[in-house]
Amino acid sequence: MRLTTALTLVLLSGTAVNAETLTLYTSQSPEIAQQTVDAFQAKYPDIKVEWTRNGTSQLLNVLRAEIEAGDVKPDVLLVADTINLGQLKKEGRLMAYPQAPVGSYDKSTYDKDMTFFGTKIISTGIAYNTEKAKPVETWSALLTEDNKGQIAVPSPLYSGAALNHLHSVVNVPSIGWEFYEGLAKLDIAPEGGNGPALKAVASGLAKYGIIADADVIRAKAKGSPVDLIFPKDGVSFITEPVAIMSTAKNADGAKKFIDFLLSKEGQELVVTQGNLPIDPSITPPAGFPKLSDIKLLPMDADNAVATDKETREKFTKIFGG
């Protein structure tokens, strides 16, 4: 383990530096990232993976500094959401990989220009405290006076999943900006990320929360009084996409890494790690619905990049920022 840049990242790597070294930047947790790298290297023992992990925002800050210095280190990125990759794509910093084995995967899980590819489904649904609240069927059903001040909402100005959710639902007629305006009328103040929102619901401080699926399902399995609703009008989702940098020194190794993540073996690893696979033929983890049983709300990453500034500004205005 060693330090790499001024922003103190954790670097876990093979020690050999040669033509077959693959450099990965990822926002996966250290435990999950180690599992991913170990599984890949078991399949490709001749490729040594050097990997750095941190939150997506921190990783992108480092990458921006490297771009400015003309010394881009990663061959491949595996991060939380598509908006950041959409921005890199717009700047021409991602390599297209038309031969990526997307098979029959839902087209909403990968870039139409084949520059980045979703590896799993992490949806955002409605969590509720089973002792204080009843399940609802739609997003708008939350907007009742009984729920005033009782809905925990992560802020899209802080959380990548919440920002993805915002961009996804504002263009859905049955949800739209009216949903956020309704939350504001109920004195809801979005803040922080998924963790604090889940704690608020689990403790009973909030009756409902807008939270990522796996967090709720794991908490329920551990005995927390929470459950998750997948509203019938759809759920937003992030895909933990993977992409090859246009400056990649080991593009062939990066393509093999993508091939592995999209393969049946890679998708089975996703299940082992406790997330919903994008391969609909693979049985999801316990507690998750089948992919075919939920309605996914796709997000146009190119449009999200183009409208991100005005979307954030409108959100801030609604909640009195």
From TrEMBL:
Span of the signal peptide: 1-19
Database matches in SUPFAM superfamilies: Periplasmic binding protein-like II
Family matches, as InterPro entries: Ferric-bd (IPR026045), SBP (IPR006059)
Superkingdom of the organism of origin: Bacteria
Keywords of the record: Periplasm, Signal
Gene3D superfamilies cross-referenced by the UniProt entry: Periplasmic binding protein-like II (3.40.190.10)
PANTHER family attached to this UniProt entry: ABC TRANSPORTER SUBSTRATE-BINDING PROTEIN, THIAMINE-BINDING PERIPLASMIC PROTEIN-RELATED
Protein name: ABC transporter substrate-binding protein
Lineage: Bacteria, Pseudomonadati, Pseudomonadota, Alphaproteobacteria, Hyphomicrobiales
